[in-house]
Structure formats: structure tokens, C-alpha cells
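Field log, afternoon session.

UNIT: design team B
ACTIVITY: writing a sequence onto a fixed backbone
BACKBONE:
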């Protein structure tokens, strides 16, 4: 069997995240030989961003599982499970999703990436960190030493995970959030953008602390505002 790093690649999806994944693959010099997307197929498109359109997702069934690797171009917002469903469907048929790390990312040699993990430009993954299958480590994310990130997680742009953080499968950590050291996050949990998490977060929970409203001057015309 051809090694995964040598396989030509087929991209699933043609939305915003797919654009970034395609750029990532090209930055690594990988050969993307086709894209599968229902909307492109429906519109009769023959190419997308210079890549031949093979058809909708069902076109993958005609490919040799030993001769191509797959790229998941479907993004993940909160509890959107389309990305995970695609990954599980096609891996069950013998296909392999290829892990990619941008040349502009810093990945410690002792860190590990699961199948289909995507590490974007400017991200840093430190010593002995583990990134699960199909997990997105988006632009500028910081994953410090000994973090364990489960499968199908999305670390949105600018998220910061201090040392020893554990993140359960299917969780979503919003842009620019900060998770302090040794904090554990259960499966399917959500940390909102910009939030700071200092305590464990249970599976399926949402951490979205209320932001204090800016003070305003009293308005005598409003009930309760008059002195």
C-alpha cells in the first residue's frame, strides 16, 4: 500500500473551510486530484479553484481506497456533526483521511496527530500533545505540552490551551478562548469565543460567561433611573 504521505488527495466539500484545507495541501506540495461537492455537481461545474470536480460525495465510491487519501473540507461550528459523519462513513469503507500540518505551524516532534487532523498556519503544538482524528487545530491556536485533544474537536482560531488540558471528542472551543492548565473538558462541550475556562467542564455543557455591559448614565425618562 502506498504511504499516506505519498497518496494523491481528494477533497470533500467546497466551502470556506475547504478553501483553507486546499491551500494547506498546496503549501505542503500535495497533489489534490479532485473535489467532491453536491452543489458543484448540481451546478455542472467541471473545476473548482483549479481542481477537477469529480461529482458529489458518491463519486468517492468509484475510487481505489489504496490509491487516494481524503481531505475533509467540511468545517465544524458548534454541534454541526456533518464533518464527523463524513469521516466515519468513508473510513468505514476503507478510505483514509490524511493528517496535514501547515509548514507555517510548529509541531513538536513528540506530538502526535490522528488520521485526518488538520493543523493550520501559525498554530503551535507542543511536546507530548496528542491531537485526535479529524480534529481541526485552526489558525494561530496554541496547544501546550501534554494536552490530549480527542477526535472530531474544533479548536477555533486563536484558542489557547495551557499545559495538560484534556478535551473530549466532538467538543468546540471558540475563537480566542483560554483554557487554563490541567482543566478537563467533557465530550461534546462548548467553550464560547473569548471565554476563560479555569474549572472542569462536563460533557455536553456550554461555558459562555455573561459579559458585563458597559455602564451608562442614568436616564430620568426611564423608570427606575430617576434619582
Amino acid at each position: 500500500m502506498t504511504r499516506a504521505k505519498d497518496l494523491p488527495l481528494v477533497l470533500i466539500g467546497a466551502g470556506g473551510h475547504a478553501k483553507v484545507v486546499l491551500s494547506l495541501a498546496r503549501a505542503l506540495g500535495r497533489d489534490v486530484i479532485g473535489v467532491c461537492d453536491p452543489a458543484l455537481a448540481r451546478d455542472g461545474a467541471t473545476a473548482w479553484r483549479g481542481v477537477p470536480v469529480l461529482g458529489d460525495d458518491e463519486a468517492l465510491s468509484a475510487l481505489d481506497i489504496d490509491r487516494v487519501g481524503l481531505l475533509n473540507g467540511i468545517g465544524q461550528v458548534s454541534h454541526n456533526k456533518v464533518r464527523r459523519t463524513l469521516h466515519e462513513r468513508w473510513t468505514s469503507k476503507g478510505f483514509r483521511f490524511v493528517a496535514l500540518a501547515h509548514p507555517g505551524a510548529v509541531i513538536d516532534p513528540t506530538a502526535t496527530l490522528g488520521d485526518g487532523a488538520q493543523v493550520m498556519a501559525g498554530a503551535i503544538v507542543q511536546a507530548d500533545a496528542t491531537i485526535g482524528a479529524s480534529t481541526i487545530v485552526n489558525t494561530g491556536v496554541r496547544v501546550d505540552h501534554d494536552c490530549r485533544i480527542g477526535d472530531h474537536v474544533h479548536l477555533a482560531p486563536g484558542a489557547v490551551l495551557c499545559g495538560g488540558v484534556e478535551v473530549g471528542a466532538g467538543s468546540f472551543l471558540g475563537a480566542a478562548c483560554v483554557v487554563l492548565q490541567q482543566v478537563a473538558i467533557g465530550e461534546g462541550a462548548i467553550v464560547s469565543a473569548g471565554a476563560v475556562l479555569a474549572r472542569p467542564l462536563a460533557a455536553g455543557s456550554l461555558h459562555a460567561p455573561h459579559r458585563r455591559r458597559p455602564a451608562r448614565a442614568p436616564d430620568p425618562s426611564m423608570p427606575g433611573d430617576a434619582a
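LOG NOTE: The helical segments are 16-27, 38-42, 82-92.
NEXT ACTIVITY: expression trials, pending approval
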